[in-house]
Amino acid sequence: MIPEAREVHLSRKDRKVLEACCRSPVTLQRDLKRARIVLLAADGRSTRSIAKEVGVQPRIVSLWRHRYADHGLEGLQDKPRPGKQPIYTKTTDKRILKLLDKPPPQGFARWTGPLLAEALGDVDVQYVWRFLRSHKIDLVARKSWCESNDPNFTAKAADVVGLYVAPPAKAIVLCVDEKPSIQALERAQGYLKLPNGRALTGQSHDYKRHGTTTLFAALEVATGKIIATHSKRRRRVEFLDFMNSVTAAFPNRKLHVILDNLNTHKKNEDWLKAHPNVQFHFTPTSASWLNQVEVWFSILQGQSLSGTSFTSLKQLQEHINAYVNAYNDRAEPFVWTKKKVRQRRFKGRRITQL
Fold this sequence. Notes:
This protein is α/β, with parallel strands linked by helices. Helix content is 40%, strand content 18%. It has 12 helices and 5 strands. The chain has helices spanning 12-23, 29-42, 47-54, 58-71, 90-100, 113-120, 125-134, 153-165, 236-249, 269-274, 293-305, 313-329; strands at residues 171-193, 199-220, 226-231, 254-259, 278-282. The longest helix is centred in the C-terminal third of the chain and has 17 residues, at 313-329. It is elongated, with a radius of gyration of 39 Å.
């Protein structure tokens, strides 16, 4: 049943607005139909005739006649709609975060999306994944840290960093350490052609060992150049032999040597007395990353050792020596950019011992 038609009285201002709406090529169809309904109703047309001309149901004409009569032009706008109630709310998000603080189910190393959904019981796994992505929570990535418990961390760190930032005048600053047990592994290498025609380089999983070497290295902070020798072992005697070769490379020069806390680096007072131009500086406990030669060891591994094959220990040593010579030809010093090195505990850190 169609409600009784309401009389529509248009002001001159409203008529201009509705007529402009009808003439505009960018007016939405829904707004165009509403404007025509009101204009025709103001001309005294019946509801059924308007519906036939505009192409809508009579009840639609009656709706917009009443809306304009009651609210004017504002009545022709859509009312806000509540929409569908969300299935998951902030309470659900808090439940997921609370569950992540708990250990995973017995037998599992970490939480996964399906495990979280199963533990929650009423949350779809797809929402769990969306929530984790929106909060940038990666369940697979792992961080590692090493918190120094050295009571003299600040003083030792300041000493080492000071040598990088403002080295003593007319002195040589060296970073010294060892890379032990570098294996001479022989692997089958070559090209592998896939069925789709692609060719990949690679190596076999099986290998043959031909011994190991320990690389002693000293990085000159001012130039970035490397002094390196090989040894079978990394005892105190091998370390001091290497230091003898280092001092011979810089005769009559004051040497400041940065070392980590390895036992063979300490308790060498007799050797230091015999070499008064040499002074040892030790990084804090569990902070060997302050030693710049560790950066070079990483470069050596990535550019020279990874993915290689050696048929003898001698071939491995010659390979490393060739890389050192090539590196020294284009060596550049590392630039220390960190302004402050301080000891600070992690806020809110939670460590669970299983």
